[in-house]
Amino acid sequence: MDITVGSPRFPMFNLQKGKSYCFRVRSVIKFGVSESSEPSLPISLGQPQVHGLKSKKEYVFRVKSVGRAGNSTYSNESPPILVCNLDGGGQYYQFRVFAANVVGVGKPSEPSEAFLCEEWTMPEPGCPYDLEFREVRHNSLVVLWAVPLYEGQQGPITGYLVELSEGDQSQSWTAVNEKPIADTVFKVSGLQSGQTYRLRVCAFNKAGMGIPSLPSELIRAQTQPDTRDIEIGVDNDGFIFLAFEATEITEKSTFVWSKNYKEAIEATIGTAMSILTFTNATKEDLGLYTVEMSDNSDISSSFTFAAEDLERLTELGSDSPALQVAGGGVRGKGACVSGCRLRARATLQSSASFSTTERSLVLQPIKINFDKASGLIEILFDQLSKEDEGSYTAQLCDGRAKNQFTQVLVDERPYFLEFLSWTVTEDCEFIIKCKVTNVSKDTTLKWFKDGVETPAVYDQQTGVSTMTVQQVTKKEAGHCKAVASDGRGQDVSTLELLHEEYDKLLQLLSKQCALSAGPVRIQCTAVGFKLYCSLKYYISYMKTSWHFKESRIGQLERCKPGSSMQKLRVEVFAPTENDKGKYTLEMFDDQEKHTRSLGLSGQAFADALLKYQRLKQVTVAAKNRAKVTKGLPDVVAIMESKSLCLTCFADGDHAPEMFWLRNDKGIASGGPVQHRQRE
Question: Is the distance from CB of 297 to CB of 283 less than 8 angstroms?
């Protein structure tokens, strides 16, 4: 290798372990190239080794840069490095660090202090390590650490003690917590704003306190500008939430939530804010919640979700308006059809509206009386008519949530509590459902499809009626109607399964059919392979395609996709080694793509190819086997002193050899009996 570079350092890559290399250098100027230097000593690349740690153990390392402008964040962990070739103990070691980039390797750091390498046998635990800080404020901070690698002869570890020292020169350490704590995280309070501190941690076991950790880096107690804390509240739906807003954020920044610094939690993430929502908060959700930025742990905050918060916010979130029927009555020239009594807090800013199944009634003093003090709402009708029948709904909004109550104005007839609606089950069944109420023993419920009565299941006790279609076809499209009636009157519910509604049904049905698909399987035949996937049933609305090695399989001479009612298949005729690979079935329901695949290679392909070849041989042998195509007649008239000619036809590859028998005994050719065989 002969390369010209402009630096006295040059990195070498892609060298092989176990091989030795020699290097030499030549200088280049405008007048020419010098003679080569003497070759270097052979350099052999072996397993990476680090001395000064525990022998036959693997370690990972993290580094960070330190300068006048501050300290960088820690790098990612290095790959595991095996430590070996240590002496039996009592030896001192020093460490140096080199920085490297694409240009080359820099100068080494100053050697570390001498490190005595000896095995720990003490009863007390070793030192905690990897101290980190979170939520640094002007009077407090949170410190985290890793448990010691050595628990001591009288382990396990029972607790930790956190110690504090002011400044970077002081050798005086003061315990922060009075009693050892079990967690590996602790919030230090009562700090002096602007003062710098160092911290260290000691572990305890039954034997007592172990050696302290190395002192942490110098940290200043101050709140950074634009620092945000976690906020708690109730959203518009009445759910309790925790929210955190970050001011310094990049494209790669993500919010990392956790509970008690252990359990990771997913939250809703916006542009610069993350929200953790409790849809049904209980006592199990109580605890310490923390959040930090993935690329900058200095931006962090925590909040202790206590029982008092749960009780207060649950009550606040449930302050939806409560409606209660107050009853109807005659007033003046008309009738009070329905009334509602409202109970709400004094701070409630409410508005109400009534609506029927056909139209909406706007609050107007002339038609509706609404007394906010008593919560009584009245609707006055001058004259009642058939058009006034229907459902009347009182709705109330208090700024956070809504509540409503529905009063039905009918002539005591049966009516639909739930109108016709449809759903698709996991078993790909199409179900149309409705529910009637105010029924009697004489009430009947009839279903009609495009004007023709159709059977359905009706439970008079519950009022629920259903019609189940095991397999959807085009005839399900159309107009559905259910009629509930008795001597008091009738009510009608309709459902249009046409156009967009029918397409919506097919899309959801296609999705369930695709989800019901099993794995791709292979079946060997005398002509090749048949790859197939079984499902509940197949509908043409679902778009399907087969792929081989990411290429779509079309209608080719050697490949033929197809389908049946409960299977999707592709046939590969006369397979060869070129047909080895991954086969994928794609099913698209007009919104999502669902896939099933089979890797046909290795031993699986060899077994399938061998089975195909055997089936092919059996088929060919059966086709070419000798057989009589036209036999002897059942009855033959024989005349005395006359010749008799018996003829039969046979086929086979190769031409079959013919034998004649009489009374199950062979007849030899010769004399009066002659055998003749013609192709």
Answer: no
Provide the H-helix boundaries in 390-498.
none
Task: Kindly compute the dihedral angle of the four CA atoms of residues 665, 669, 672, 676, in this order, to the nearest 10 degrees.
Answer: 120
What CATH number labels 231-317? 2.60.40.10
Domain 322-409 of CATH type 2.60.40.10? yes
415-497 to CATH, choices 3.40.50.1820, 2.10.77.10, 2.30.30.30, 2.60.40.10: 2.60.40.10
Please report the DSSP string for 195-234 in residue order. -EEEEEEEEEETTEE-PPPPPPPPEE--PPTT----EEEE
CATH annotation of 515-623: 2.60.40.10
- The whole-angstrom separation of Cα 276 and Cα 266 is 8
3-state secondary structure 98-139: CCECCCCECCCCCCCCCEEECCCCCCCCCCCEEEEEECCCCC
CB atoms within 10 A of CB 487: 8
pLDDT band at 66 (very low <50, low <70, confident <90, very high): low
CB atoms within 10 A of CB 85: 10
d(CA 439, CA 483): 12
pTM value > 0.70:
no
Q: What are the domain boundaries of the chain?
A: 129-220, 231-317, 322-409, 415-497, 515-623, 627-679
Could you report the per-residue pLDDT of 226-284, keeping only the tens digit for each?
788 888 888 777 788 888 888 777 777 888 888 877 777 777 666 678 888 887 788 88
Bond preceding residue 479 cis, omega within 30 of 0: no
* Cα–Cα distance for residue pair 135/228, rounded to 1 Å: 10
Which of 201, 304, 298, 208 lies closest to 249, judged by CA? 298
Query: 129-220 — its CATH code?
Result: 2.60.40.10
Q: Which has the closest alpha carbon to 659: 626, 623, 634, 625?
A: 626
